[in-house]
Design goal:
The strands form two sheets. The chain has a nine-stranded mixed beta sheet with strand order 3-2-1-4-5-11-10-7-6, with helices on both faces. The protein has a two-stranded antiparallel ribbon with strand order 8-9. The chain has a domain at about 5-95 and about 315-375. α3 (about 40-50) crosses α4, α3 (about 40-50) crosses α11 (about 310-335) and α4 (about 55-65) packs across α5 (about 80-90). It contains 13 helices and eleven strands. With about 375 residues, the chain is of the alpha+beta class.
């Protein structure tokens, strides 16, 4: 019988180990380490994400029970106390570097026309315990962190991610994200800043967002709209010349499109695209829902509901490794051909994570009882 490595080992082949080793050396993560290498920490936490382990004890017991198969992935059994100490002390920047490299390598080889490139920007909160109060403030008797993401809806891939305390304004990390000149950026009211809109416009980007109710538009031109459609008004004008902090830096004309939503609610959209059909602009803003589906998936399927560490470094480490697990699963799914649905592939990976089976020939069980048990894992990629 032909020798076969474990499913876990096959998944780890997608890790850019050259980048990982350079980052470990750069941040000194293995300096004066005697027992647990950074690689061991990473593989243990990655195993926890892919296997569904919810605690340090579950990771320790799971790896211990499969100790004879860990050598395939160059992994080792871990002690939960040692792992907890590593999570608190080893720099999360190592995993941030790996995440960024995986993102860069997952992009399509043929560069999409920049005009067709859509970037959704949003943030989601992940709940923390009161033991994290040293680095994130209490708001309404709750503690939380924010995961700020730039998302590509065409490739269903997060392109950038930053973790902050939940009192940080959403637009603050957005301003620090690198802007792709010529791309289309879609975001909601949390990113309301005329200076930032001007920066996007200066780089040739199209943006689509909402206008606040108190923001006035000096209308110059009204464009025709279809009768009995969802588009109520389409007009071009200028935003107010003066804002709370002084003069408005964004003086170029913008376009306001008023869309009727369910229950006759009105949505005021604003864009710097003066030429595209109003229906296209409305559809772009509606596409923003895809990043909400992504957030829903990672909260339901990755280990982000219960954190196995409490300080800032441990929380960020767990979040970045969860995002790495998402990218690894997505990369493996895109290669295999035997399982048509990504949610089935992710479910089978979890069930067979330490089995010596060919990752790309996993098949759905025929037994109806097994299928029923497998339903605990939800969709892998949001539709």
């Amino acid at each position: 019988m032909r020798h076969q490595n474990s499913v876990f080992h096959q998944l780890t082949k997608h890790i850019p180990w050259d980048v990982f080793d350079r980052s470990v050396a750069c941040h000194g993560s293995d300096r004066r380490v005697r027992r647990l290498r950074t690689r061991d920490q990473f593989l243990a936490l990655l195993y926890g994400q892919l296997s569904g382990a919810t605690s340090l004890r579950a990771i320790e017991d799971g790896l211990s029970s499969h100790s004879t198969r860990l050598y395939h992935a160059n992994a080792r059994p871990v002690s939960r106390s040692t792992l907890a100490d590593a999570n608190a002390r080893r720099s999360f920047e190592v995993y941030a570097d790996v995440f960024k490299t995986l993102v860069a390598r997952s992009r399509p080889g043929v560069r999409r026309k920049l005009r067709d490139a859509v970037r959704l920007i949003d943030a989601t909160k992940v709940k923390l315990s009161s033991r994290s109060k040293a680095w994130t403030p209490e708001i309404k008797e709750h503690y939380a962190a924010k995961v700020h993401v730039v998302y590509d809806p065409h490739e269903a891939t997060p392109l950038n991610a930053v973790v902050t305390p939940h009192d940080v304004n959403d637009i603050t990390p957005a301003k620090a994200f690198a802007i792709e000149a010529g791309a289309t950026y879609v975001f909601d009211l949390a990113y309301y800043g005329f200076e930032w809109w001007k920066r996007l416009d200066d780089l040739g980007c199209r943006f689509v967002t909402r206008l606040k109710t108190y923001t006035k538009l000096e209308v110059n031109t009204s464009l025709p709209v279809p009768r009995d459609g969802a588009i109520i008004a389409d007009r071009i004008g200028h935003l107010s010349k003066h804002i709370m902090k002084g003069k408005n830096p964004f003086t170029d004309p913008v376009r306001e499109i008023i869309v009727r939503r369910d229950h006759d609610q009105m949505l005021r959209l604003v864009t710097n695209d003066l030429d595209a059909p109003a229906e296209e602009i409305a559809a772009l803003y509606k596409q923003r829902w895809e990043i909400e589906l992504f957030f829903k998936w990672i909260k339901q399927n990755l280990k982000l509901k219960h954190f196995i560490g409490v300080n800032e470094n441990a929380v960020k480490t767990q979040i970045y490794i969860a995002l790495i697990a998402f990218l690894i699963l997505r990369a493996a799914y895109s290669i295999q051909k035997s399982i048509p649905k990504p949610q089935a592939f992710a479910r089978l990976v979890r069930l067979n994570i330490m089995q010596r089976r060919d990752l790309f020939t996993l098949k759905e069980p025929r037994d109806s009882n097994l299928k029923h048990l497998n339903q605990m894992t939800l969709a892998f990629i949001p539709c």
